[in-house]
From TrEMBL:
Residues 150-160 have a biased composition (Pro residues). This is LysM domain-containing protein. Residues 150-169 are annotated as: Disordered. It comes from the Bacteria. It comes from Gloeobacter morelensis MG652769.
Amino acid sequence: MEWAWGMAIGGWAALAQVQPEAACSGLPIETYVAARGESAAAIARARALKIETLLGANPAIQKRPVRQGDALVILPRDGILYRPEPGEGFPEVAARFRVRGEVLFEMNGCRMGERLFVPGVLWKPPAAPVADAPPPAAVKGVPTLLQLPPPPALPPLPRRPSPKNKARSRVSMTAPWFARQHVKIWQTLYSTALTSIYG
């Protein structure tokens, strides 16, 4: 029993020696000045980081190569730098990124700043906008639609003449017949033109 009490007392003494400053020291975020000929992949590989971590922390090199003299933010491990929204605290940020609140709290020195280091979250480039489909006339191999005028409407049929005027209207009845023949000819030409274009 004496050795058990001795181990318990020793454990309590070790816990008592842990200072709050050690738990809230946070992880250091460094700044590195790129040398000539260095690439983002090489800088990330030398520090055991994924290239997404380096690019996410340095927006200046997300769309261009690393240049000599670039001051790059180097995170302590894979993660992102996040700017909290107004009213957000550690619990809200931890819930947003699904990380443990106490880990987030300790890694950021137990205090809220303008930017928080969120471990374990990888930066993703924004999705490229989807271009609108070109109009059918701009697609190669598709013929342009021929704009033909609509066929004329059929003229209204004349009213049937009375027996008294039957002989006199016989001559006038021939005019609508010619009009209908004209419409039939026009419709035939319209159909032939569409068939020759679109097969």
